[in-house]
Design brief:
Length: 159
């Protein structure tokens, strides 16, 4: 009987320690409540970070069709590109410089081989290369830096 009481007491202490430890871990992982913003000397509150503008998606039409460099046979790549920007002026500027943008992208895509786009990493690199190419045209022609944040494929066909 004495052994049963000792085991029951030990279990109760163990359960209490587990609950206390869990409660302590829960409280330590909660984000701290921000302190009220202090007013400056002139009574103005500290600046709140600006919310990012909504994304704008721009389609580059028509689809691109380029030859791929392949030793064994003739291959083609057809892809449709969409770009994302948060600058509302980028759409009009891309329309204005569409000929140069398409030219630079076609020249860039024309140097691709099957090995360049076979893996996901190659496609991701191609997206980044397209983003850099478009931003370079916009920067050279209009002085806009990083107008395009991302490039997405909405069609990607290799034959």
């Amino acid at each position: 009987m004495k052994n049963i009481l000792i085991i029951a007491a030990a279990q109760t202490v163990l359960i209490a320690l587990t609950v206390a430890g869990t409660w302590f871990m829960f409280l330590s992982t909660q984000p701290a409540t921000p302190a009220p913003m202090a007013e400056g000397e002139e009574g103005a509150q500290a600046k709140v970070p600006a919310k990012k503008a909504e994304p704008i998606y721009i389609s580059i039409d028509p689809s691109f069709v380029v030859n791929l460099q392949d030793k064994s046979k003739m291959r083609f790549l057809q892809m449709q590109l969409e770009v994302m920007s948060r600058n509302s002026d980028v759409k009009d500027l891309m329309d204005k410089h569409s000929t140069r943008i398409r030219n630079d992208l076609i020249l860039s895509f024309g140097a691709l081989s099957m090995d360049d786009i076979r893996q996901t990493e190659g496609k991701t690199n191609l997206q980044e290369k397209a983003r850099i190419t478009i931003n370079k045209v916009l920067a050279d022609a209009e002085g806009i830096k990083n107008g395009v944040e991302a490039v997405y494929f909405t069609k990607f066909v290799v034959q």
